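JOB MANIFEST
job_type = single_chain_structure
chain_count = 1
residues = 86
[input]
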Amino acid sequence: MTNNDILKKLRVALKLRDTDIVKILALVDFKMTESELSALFRNEDHPNYKPAGDQVLRNFLNGLIIHMRGPMKEQAPKAGPPARRN
C-alpha cells in the first residue's frame, strides 16, 4: 500500500475535503495547495499523478493529531527530589 493509498483511505474514512486536508497540513506549518493535493489523489496512470512522499504523510498524520485532539498543553516541569541539606 502506497502513501497515496493511505491518504485516500483516511480522507474517505474521516470524510475530509481537500480544503480540510490543506488546513490540517497548515497546522504543522506544511504548505500545500489544493491543486498539489489533488495530484496525490489521482490514479497512478494519470499524467498529473504525483507520489506522496513520507514527509507528506508524516506531516498529515501529525497535523491530524492536532486537528482531532487539539494542541498539546504546556506541561509544568516535574519536581525533582528534594534538595539535601547538610
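[summary]
The longest helix spans residues 54-69.
Residues 3-69 form one domain.
exit_status = 0
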